[in-house]
Fold this protein.
Amino acid sequence: MTTLFEQIAQRAKQLEHETAEFLMDMVRVPSFSGTEKDVILVIKAEMEKVGFDEVTIDGLGNVIGRIGNGPRIIAFDAHIDTVYAGDMSLWDFDPFTPKIEDGKVWGRGTVDQEGGMASMVTAGKIIKEMGLNDQFTIYFTGTVMEEDCDGLCWKYIINEDKIRPEMVVITEPTNMNIYRGHRGRMEMQVRVKGLSCHGSAPERGDNAIYKISRIALEIEKLHERLKVDAFLGKGSVCVSQVFFTGPSQCAVPDSAWINLDRRLTFGETKDIAVAEVKDAATRAGYPDAEVIVLEYAEKAYTGLVYPMEKYFPTWAIPEDSPWVVSAVDAYERTLGKKPFVDKWTFSTNGISIAGMEGIPCIGLGPGNEVMAHFPNEHCPIEHLSGASAFYAALVAKLNGKN
């Protein structure tokens, strides 16, 4: 006699083709940050088709499907914006004309992160069909603008939609492992001023590019000194962009600035990170260099601007957390093997949910995170059904089903 959890896995396998087809429907609709409207409508229609109790689109443009009306609240999240395709010569096919080949779905967003969205919706269908939920109000969120500003969408959901779950499952790619945290991050800028003059006599001026270059070299040295955490690993910093102004190509530049990508491990805060960069500028000989934490204030496809500082805190939950323990048990009983419990290398919406708000998050998503932002992106179909089974099984587990 098959157990309930085996039946869940079997049903997810039966729905595998539907899940893959829904994923391809999303991939066909390019959905870059701030332009997600059309794919949001595709997702809304699919949620309604499979029988979600309620489907709404909020003021920022997130699509929110609801199943159940219990006193406790949990959520499953997938951001549905993608990065651009990049250099098309690196792709073997049109990234927005998806295909199924070699047991995988190919196309931009199949791994990061619309595969998780497809599996979530199938899980919702299974939860409804099999009557797996009676204790929870479950929200399934297709969130916007994550690639540009991770966590902004959930800042809006918590503060404006007034949805505050007791736990959120993040469906970013994990290669079907269970993740329980990741480093935080910051986006900073360092600015210096110079003095322009004719390029034929550069000694008359003060070259801002030379100044910012010396600071950049000190940033490179700073990276080697950053803190290491036993679980999350080492903090990091890199110069990611360089800019300047000047009267012409034949003139000494009068200002220059660099943007920094800073990854924060445990024990590293915004104030510490800013102070370290200021110290690097001082070591380079420019204590007056300006160090700024950047702000995101771009327009959503709804027309709303919802600003957010680009400081995204570090987070992790303990391996013995009841949420992780429940997730491991549901995984083993449904997928028939022990999961690897680890962390993401990159950042997710968890920076807002867990890092800012203290709401526990666990992660499991279809696809290998190595394929995120990578040409010829593809997701194994068996991951799609496996993730659907896990999400539904976790709901069953949390509802006390056996």
Summary: The domain at 4-182+314-398 is CATH 3.40.630.10 (Aminopeptidase). Residues 208-225 form the longest helix (18 residues). The chain has ten helices and 22 strands. The first strand starts at residue 54 and ends at 57.
